[in-house]
Structures are given as structure tokens and as C-alpha cells.
Design brief:
By secondary structure, this protein is of the alpha+beta class. The protein has helices spanning 6-12, 14-23, 31-41, 53-62, 88-94, 103-109, 138-145, 197-206, 214-224, 230-240, 246-256, 261-264, and strands spanning 28-29, 66-72, 77-83, 100-101, 119-123, 155-160, 163-170, 180-185, 188-195, 276-277, 285-288, 293-296. The chain has 2 domains: 1-84, Arc Repressor Mutant, subunit A; 87-296, Beta Polymerase, domain 2.
Length: 299
């Protein structure tokens, strides 16, 4: 009887390989992950030493065990391999170690929107920065918010199950991952790091352009009502130590979303020293006297 080729050996071992991958409770792999798996199990699976990781992976792709996903980023292409049903959100987070779902993706994960965002948002916090305690003046705020918000050009794209995805690779201020948790959700088969509701509401107030716009932010505050702690949100906000007075915007959104007066009064611990803006480049404005916030007319 002729000796089996190494490719037929891999095919015959597929039930064992599938059982092994299933027990890992993981469905997204890098090349190095699969190289390690082959190295650890080569003897048990009787796969000849001459067999390369690429040959091993090639058979698994050909037999439908794995799917190759090529992610294009501005710097390079990244290859991932998915096993069984993989979430595009988990693929997005896997691109950068330490990143997590944020902004519109977090809104969607917490079911605070009826929309299904076409874009995925992940955040990787920058290294800590110190200093810059210079006093802010009203003219500085007015000038900054009269201009377009600076947008990231770090955008990745990939195709999964014939569907195209776009990922904004954000690099936010270092916040020691406050409010970041690993959760399971209706659209996440395995736990994925994502901002909790309190942190999400802060992030979307700060960057509404990554969150579907100010109308979506307001709707998220309405949908979240009764599901989170406003006290915890304000505790996070104080620790996050923003230069701009985002507490005024949070107060504005809470009022617009019909929160009770005793909740609005929690903002009294924060001073209101400036006029502020709900978003950048508002063409037609209304003004909230209570929160000293300019917002789009008709909101």
C-alpha cells in the first residue's frame, strides 16, 4: 500500500484538528498562532516534519475548516484565519493588541441604536502624556470648534463572507482603559473588549462624528436611560480629566433625553466657565442657557 502524502494525512486528521480548535474556544487566528498549533500537535496528528505551516493552513482552507481574511491597512496587509463563525467586530479588535470596540460600535453592541453601522470603530489608547496645564480661553474654544474635526486616516478594510467591512483604527488619549470590559453580546459569539455603557456615552459625546452624529448620541442617552449609573459616568469623566468642559454637553444630553431633575443636579459639582459646542462647525445654532452649549438648530 503506497504511503499517504502529507496532504492526505492532514485531510484524514481534520476531525481531530476541528475538535482541537473547538476546544480552544477561539475563532480568529494569526499565522503565528497556527504555526504554534502545528508545532504542538504535529506528532499526535502524524504530520510529517517536512510539512510547512502554509501547506497545513492551505489544506484547512481548501477543506473549509478555515477562512483566510486579508485586512488592508495604510501600512501593510494583515492576514487572519477564521474558524467557524467569526464576528467582524472580533476581527477588528484583533488587529491591534490592547484595542477595544468604541463609539458607534459600542453603541451597537449595547443595543442603544436601531441602526446597523456599516463601519467598525476600535480604539487603542496612546502612551500617557504629561504637562500642558496652560489656561484655556474662550477664544481658543471658539476657534477650535469653528474648524472641521481632525479625522483619523488609519482605516482598515476587509471582506468576510463576501461582505465588505471598514474599520476606523482610533488612537485615543490614555485613560488606563477605564470602563473597558470583555462582554458577550448578540453580535459577538465570544467575549470581546468593548467600552461599557458609561464610558461609551462619554466617548460619543466627545467624538459624535465617530458615533453617527449628535442625533444618534441623543438617542443613545434615551435608550440607555435606566440601564447605567450616571454617578459612575461622572466619576469616569472626572478621572479622564479632559481639557474641554464635556460635562456641559453631558448635562445638555441628559436634559434633552428627559432625565429627572435630581439627575441633572448631579452636574452641579462641575463648574461652568465657558461657552461650549455640541460638535464642530455647527452652521445654524441654538444656545442652551443652562449648559452654555451651542447645538444644531432643531435638535
Amino acid at each position: 500500500m503506497p504511503r499517504l502524502s502529507r496532504f492526505l494525512i492532514i485531510q484524514n486528521m481534520i476531525p481531530k484538528i476541528v475538535n482541537y480548535l473547538t476546544e480552544l474556544n477561539q475563532n480568529i487566528f494569526s499565522l503565528s498562532d497556527l504555526q504554534w498549533i502545528l508545532s504542538e500537535n504535529r506528532t499526535d496528528w502524524t504530520i510529517p516534519k517536512i510539512t510547512t505551516a502554509n501547506e497545513f493552513i492551505g489544506v484547512l482552507i481548501d477543506k473549509g475548516v478555515l477562512e483566510e481574511v486579508i485586512i488592508k491597512t495604510p501600512q501593510r496587509n494583515i492576514t487572519k484565519y477564521t474558524f467557524e463563525e467569526a464576528s467582524p467586530y472580533a476581527i477588528a479588535v484583533s488587529l491591534r493588541q490592547g484595542s477595544y470596540l468604541s463609539h458607534y460600535s459600542a453603541i451597537f453592541t449595547h443595543q442603544l441604536t436601531e441602526n446597523v453601522p456599516k463601519t467598525i470603530y476600535t480604539n487603542l489608547e496612546q502612551s500617557p502624556k504629561y504637562g500642558n496645564d496652560e489656561e484655556m480661553e474662550q477664544k481658543d474654544i471658539d476657534l477650535a470648534f469653528s474648524r472641521p474635526m481632525r479625522l483619523t486616516n488609519q482605516i482598515a478594510t476587509f471582506k468576510l463572507k463576501e461582505k465588505e467591512y471598514k474599520v476606523y483604527l482610533l488612537n485615543g488619549k490614555n485613560q488606563k482603559q477605564i470602563g473597558v470590559e470583555k462582554i458577550e453580546s448578540f453580535n459577538l459569539p465570544f467575549p470581546v473588549a468593548v467600552t461599557n455603557v458609561e464610558r461609551t456615552l462619554i466617548d460619543i459625546v466627545v467624538r459624535p462624528i465617530y458615533s453617527g452624529g449628535v442625533e444618534e448620541v441623543l438617542q443613545a442617552f434615551r435608550e440607555a436611560k435606566g440601564t447605567y449609573s450616571v454617578n459612575r459616568l461622572l466619576s469616569y469623566l472626572k478621572k479622564m480629566d479632559f481639557k474641554y468642559p464635556y460635562h456641559q454637553l453631558i448635562g445638555f444630553y441628559l436634559e434633552k433625553a428627559d432625565y429627572e431633575e435630581n439627575v441633572l443636579n448631579l452636574l452641579n459639582k462641575f463648574e461652568i466657565n465657558y461657552n461650549f459646542y455640541l460638535s464642530y462647525q455647527i452652521s445654524e445654532k441654538d444656545f442652551s442657557e443652562r449648559w452654555r452649549v451651542f447645538y444644531p438648530k432643531g435638535l
